[in-house]
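Dear colleagues,

I hope this message finds you well. In preparation for our joint manuscript, I am sending the Polysaccharide deacetylase family protein (Neolewinella lacunae) sequence together with its predicted structure, so that both groups work from identical material. I would be grateful if you could confirm receipt.
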Amino acid sequence: MHNFRLTFLAPLFFLGTCVSAQQATPNLAERLGYPADTKLLIVHADDLGVTHATNTASLAALEKGSVSSASVMANCPWLPEVAEWARANPEHDLGMHLVLTSEWRLLRWGSVAPADQVASLLDSSGYLKPLCDLMAENADPEEVEREIRAQIERARSLGLEPTHLDSHMGCLVYYPQFFARYLKVAREYGVPAMVSRHEILEIGPEWAQMMTPEDLVIDHIYTAGTPDYALGLDNYYRGVLAKLDPGVSVLLIHTALDGAESAGMAGGVEGWGNRWRQQDFNFFTSEDFLNILRDEKISLITWRELAQRWAARK
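The corresponding C-alpha cells are as follows:
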C-alpha cells in the first residue's frame, strides 16, 4: 500500500524557478553524453524483502532482464533471501527502499535501529506508523537519519551493497526536514538518491535549494495509482511507454506472485495488493513489453550504470 501523494506528486522535480528555464535544461541522457533523443528507462521493482512471493517474482524479473533495478526493505522478514541472491548475483542492481512506515494491517514491522533510539517513529505497539503524515507529525529528523542509516548498514552487513536509495511511500521526499537527511545520507554513501527534476513546480523551491550540481537527478518518475489500476494497469504502462520523453526515466512497479502469502499481506486491499502485483509481474516479464521497448526505441538502464557515467562525465 502506498500514500496517494506518490501518485499525484510523482514525478518529483527540482530546479524549477521557471518553466522556460526547465525546458532549456538538457536532459540527463544528454548530460551523460547520449544523443538528445535517447530514451533511457529504469524499470524499478519496489519492496523486495517484504514477502517470499515478492522476492520470487522480482528476482525472476531481474534475471530475465526486463526489470533493470529493484530496492530492498531492510525492516522486513525476507531480507536474508534477497541478500543471499545479491551475493550470488552482484552484477544486478539493488538499492535500499528506505522505510519509515508500516502500512499493511496484517503485516507490520518496526525499526531496524533500537526502538529507544528512534522512539518518535514508532506507535504504541512498537511498529512504524502506517502513513507518512502520521509519521511526520512527531518524527525527530535526527531519528529519521539514524533509522535510514541503520537500514543501509543492516543490508550491508549481509553483503548487499546498494546502488541507490529511494523512499518507501515517498515519506523522505514530502517533508523538507527529511529530504535534507535523505540527500545527506546518499551523498555520504556515494550513491544516488531517487529524485527527478522536470514538470512539477508545486513541490516548492525549498527542495530545489537543497540540491547541488553534483547530485545525479533523473528526468521523470512514473508510477501507477489506484485510478490507473481501475482502468487497467496494462493500459497505463502502454500509455507511459508510448509517450515517454527523451532523457532518463524511472517506472516504479511492484512485482509479486499472487497466492496465500501475498493475499495475506494485502488483507483484502486492492490498492498495491496481491492482484496488482501479479499483473505488474505479468506485464513486465512479457514478450509484449520487450516488443514495446524495441518499437519505441527505449533502452533499459540501471542505477549503477547511471552513477558510473555520472562520475565519469567530467
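For the figure legend, we might mention the following. The longest strand covers residues 39-48. Residues 5-312 form a domain with the TIM Barrel fold (CATH 3.20.20.370).

With kind regards,
E.M.
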